[in-house]
From TrEMBL:
GO CC annotation: cytoplasm; DNA polymerase III complex
Example GO biological process: DNA strand elongation involved in DNA replication
Keyword match DNA-binding: yes
Native species: Streptomyces aurantiacus
Entry's localization field: Cytoplasm
Protein name: HTH merR-type domain-containing protein
Length: 308
C-alpha cells in the first residue's frame, strides 16, 4: 500500500504545504490522509489528493478562513463551480475592503507619527478664515518682505510665514542672515494655532491688492479684509477682488526659539532712535556679504542693561 501512496513528506514537497500544516488540516478534518500507520502514526495520502493539497495551499496563501476553505474543497470535489466562484469572489471583496481600511488606518498613523516627530506639521492642516485690518496687513508685509530668502536651495525660506494664533497674526521672513517679524491683530479666529508659508509671489500679490493698481490705498483698505487658509491654499479677499495660490510645502524654521531669549539677551528700544543711530553712526568695513557677494559695511551693536 505504501508504494501506491505518497508519504506526508512527499505530499508536503509536491503539494506546497508543510508537514505541520498537513497535520493541522488532518486534525481539522479538511485534508484527511487516506491511511495512518497504526503503529507509527505516519500519514499516507492517495495520489489524487495531490490536487486537493495544491488547491488548499493556494487558498491558505490567499488567507481564506478555514470554514470557507472547507466549502471550497467540497464544491471543488462536487464540481459545483458556482459555489466555488462565489466563495472566491466573496473572499476577494473582503481582502479588498481590508486593504482599503488598512490604507486608511496606515495613512492616519503616518500623520500621527509625523506629528509626533515634528509637532509643527500639525499646524498646517487647519481650515481658517479670519478678518484682518487691511492697512495693518499691508504694513506688516512691508516690515518683513525685505528679509525673505531668495536662495533656491533653501526653498523653505522663499516665502513669508503666516503664524495665526488666537487674535494675533505673526508675519515672519528670514534669509538666515536676518529675520523680520510683524504682528497684526485679527478677529474671527477661534481655531488652534495654524501656520502656512506664503510664497513670495503671492505675498507680493497680496500687497498689490492692498495698495490698489494705482499705488494708492483703496477706500476698502480702511475696512477689514478676509484671509482664508484651506489646507494648502491661501486666499486674500478685499471687496470683490481676491488673490490666491498654493502655500509652500516646506517646514519653516521655528522662529520662536530665536526670539524667545533669556533675560540679558533682549532689549526694548525706540525704533526711531534706533534707525537714526544706524543711519548716522559709525560703520565697520566688512568686505563682501556671504549670501550674495555684494560689498557692505557693518554696524556693530552691543546690548547693555540700558539698551543697545
Amino acid at each position: 500500500m505504501e508504494n501506491e501512496m505518497r508519504s506526508i513528506g512527499e505530499m508536503a514537497r509536491d503539494g506546497g504545504l508543510s508537514a505541520s500544516a498537513l497535520r493541522f488540516y488532518d486534525r481539522a478534518g479538511v485534508l484527511v490522509p487516506a491511511w495512518v500507520d497504526p503503529v507509527s502514526g505516519y500519514r499516507w495520502y492517495e495520489p489524487q489528493q495531490l490536487e486537493e493539497a495544491r488547491l488548499l495551499a493556494r487558498l491558505r496563501r490567499a488567507g481564506m478562513p478555514l470554514a470557507d476553505i472547507r466549502l471550497v474543497l467540497a464544491g471543488w470535489a462536487g464540481a459545483d463551480a458556482d459555489l466555488v466562484r462565489g466563495l472566491l469572489e466573496a473572499h476577494l471583496r473582503r481582502l479588498e475592503r481590508g486593504l482599503s481600511e488598512a490604507r486608511s488606518e496606515f495613512s492616519t498613523l503616518r500623520v500621527l507619527l509625523d506629528h509626533r516627530e515634528n509637532p509643527m506639521t500639525a499646524l498646517h492642516t487647519a481650515t481658517v478664515r479670519l478678518s484682518v485690518p487691511a492697512p495693518k496687513l499691508a504694513a506688516g508685509l512691508d516690515t518683513v518682505r525685505f528679509a525673505a530668502g531668495t536662495d533656491a536651495e533653501l526653498a523653505m525660506l522663499g516665502g513669508v510665514l503666516f503664524d495665526i494664533e488666537g487674535e494675533n497674526l505673526h508675519l515672519v521672513a528670514t534669509d538666515r542672515y536676518r529675520m523680520a517679524i510683524a504682528r497684526v491683530h485679527t478677529t474671527g479666529h477661534d481655531a488652534p494655532r495654524t501656520q502656512v508659508v506664503v510664497p513670495l509671489p503671492l505675498a507680493d500679490a497680496m500687497r498689490a491688492l492692498l495698495t490698489g493698481e494705482e499705488g494708492k490705498e483703496d477706500k476698502e483698505d480702511k475696512e477689514n479684509i478676509q484671509l482664508a487658509v484651506d489646507g494648502d491654499r491661501v486666499t486674500l479677499e478685499a471687496g470683490d477682488r481676491q488673490t490666491a495660490a498654493q502655500s509652500l510645502g516646506h517646514e519653516f524654521p521655528d522662529y520662536r526659539r530665536l526670539v524667545h531669549l533669556p533675560a540679558g539677551r533682549r532689549a526694548r528700544i525706540d525704533t526711531t532712535a534706533f534707525r537714526e543711530a544706524l543711519e548716522t553712526g559709525p560703520v565697520r568695513a566688512s568686505g563682501t556679504r556671504e549670501q550674495d557677494g555684494e560689498p557692505c559695511d557693518l554696524s556693530v551693536l552691543r546690548v547693555t542693561r540700558t539698551g543697545p
